[in-house]
């Protein structure tokens, strides 16, 4: 299948008071139309920065993004701001983690919803209004007319996230990047929002990049999964393979720390330690200090990517060894 | 909102009463014998005594206060003997001058401060930002009397671009037909181009001079709150929608950044309406600031009391207006 979105060798550096820090390193993934890619990882693993880098939404002064981002083969990373604006919100849309703060408190929902429509579709006035009302109905808001005149603070978190989704879907985007869309919501609302996203995807064929730390959400929603750790993708696989035969010790740890009803275990498994900050990544594998399968080589040499068939790739020394490392360090 | 407004107006009454009492006492404590000021130093003692009786200055303070209050509740602000008119008549000619000057200086201040404050924030630490900050420092620290004189010597004396800084309109030109009392507005209404040009030329310097302080403060506030707003999630949402940078900054940013600056603008507005004494003096502007200064120098009680009370009322009303505007700008604020 020809990829719709193709991200290759994406690296993001932040300028900090301590100098340049690489927050995301050499991230590559592809996404076909209608597919859902999950990006999973702990807080601080670089998931959100990856998504913001793809949209080029990081402040230019603070962040430098390298690498290639192609949509339908068109390179986005070299586009001028004006050209990029035609893509944002139109071909690639985004929803965020915090529906409580992602809407502007001083403008009505209708106003904010129509902005993107007016910007990208050329529809104005009554047409734009009707489309906005239709979008609100599509995301399951029955009192759409009334909703148009409401302000964000009058809505619940779930309602706001529905509005955000309506806003993101307003120009029928090819790719929807959802950055932890359900994290801030109640569990029952979470399920509703995920169902809504699935339904919209089925109807419109939107490809979704779903960023989450919740493996349950991944299992339910995704076709492919990329596991991120300390700014790198450490394992990539289709969803079944990942859950059935995870290769990277970090992925294994993540899966074990997910509670299961059938479990007799008393205590939930957790990976000891925390994600290191970019200044403490060290020379070898970034997961080495927390890894239960750690070897001597892990502290010294960064592991290369090993492939298991076409769809599974893992960045770990367990499957490569010395020869493998030297063969792959150039790539 | 109507109930809230009414309640706020009612709450103003006790504080206004307090102001009336304090002003009354303060004017009486001031040195200077009003009877002597009226008659002149050389007057015969019998005549001074007669004037004192006539104006009631010989009565005990409490009696004087009683008759002052009686006048006040009837809407009579008394008589300004140093001009020979009723205070209300004096104010009717002088207040529009102050209003015109205030509005003009406020307009200049906001027109400059808002865009520059926003741009300075969106290009933080750029040359423009540094320049704006230095300008705002200068604006808030430069003495008005010095700036005023400098402007006069440059634009009137040296370059001759502007007319002599005396009053609101040149002597040879008829003021426009009276409608609002604001010369610029009136001359526009009556389409009197000569008066319009001339009154604008007279207004520019004092308005610029007076705008400096407000401009500096508002610019700083807008810059700071804009920096704050830039970090907000909804700004990122706006960007993700593909809106233009101008729309993001001036629509999504400025409205939110303007809310905290509003209080400051309201206070500034209120204090300007009370009369800008220094500016009005330098430019011989016939406004209330000048009027009050003259009244104080002449120990003329009635106009001092009247202006203090009116200033207080205006201040209260403007603050109330600011609060109501808050409710309009920020839908989260609702008054019950």
Give the helices and strands, then pairings.
The complex is a heterodimer of chains A (331) and B (336).
Chain A: E1 5-16, E2 19-31, E3 36-40, H1 47-54, E4 63-71, E5 74-75, H2 81-87, E6 92-95, H3 99-102, H4 109-121, H5 125-138, H6 144-148, H7 157-169, E7 175-179, H8 187-204, E8 207-212, H9 215-221, E9 224-229, E10 232-238, H10 239-244, H11 249-256, H12 296-300, E11 305-308, E12 312-315, H13 322-328
Parallel strand pairs in A: 3-8, 3-9, 6-7, 7-8
Antiparallel strand pairs in A: 1-2, 1-4, 4-5, 9-10, 10-12, 11-12
Helix pairs in contact in A: 4-5, 4-7, 5-7, 7-8
Chain B: H1 2-29, H2 34-39, H3 45-55, H4 61-73, E1 79-80, E2 85-86, H5 87-122, H6 127-141, H7 144-158, H8 183-189, H9 193-230, H10 233-240, H11 245-273, H12 277-282, H13 288-297, H14 301-329
Antiparallel strand pairs in B: 1-2
Helix pairs in contact in B: 1-14, 5-6, 5-9, 5-11, 6-9, 7-9, 8-9, 9-11, 10-11, 11-14, 13-14
Main location (chain A): membrane
Domain ABC transporter (chain A): 5-255
Subcellular location (chain A): Cell membrane
Number of helices of chain A: 13
Model regions low in confidence, pLDDT < 50 over at least 5 residues of chain A: 322-331
Give the proportion of residues in helices of chain B. over 70%
Mean pLDDT of chain A: 86
Overall tally of domains of chain B: 2
Q: Which CATH architecture of the largest domain in chain B would you pick? A: Orthogonal Bundle
Biggest pleated sheet of chain B: 2 strands, antiparallel
End-to-end separation of chain A in angstroms reads: 24 Å
Give the count of helical stretches of chain B: 14
Structural class of chain B: mainly alpha
Number of strands of chain A: 12
**Strand order, sheet with most strands of chain B:** 1-2
Strand content range of chain B: under 5%
Taking the alpha carbons of the first and last residues of chain B, their distance comes to 6 Å
> What is the H-and-E element order of chain B?
HHHHEEHHHHHHHHHH
Question: Unreliable stretches of chain B, pLDDT < 50, 5 or more residues?
Answer: none
Main sheet summary of chain A: 8 strands, mixed
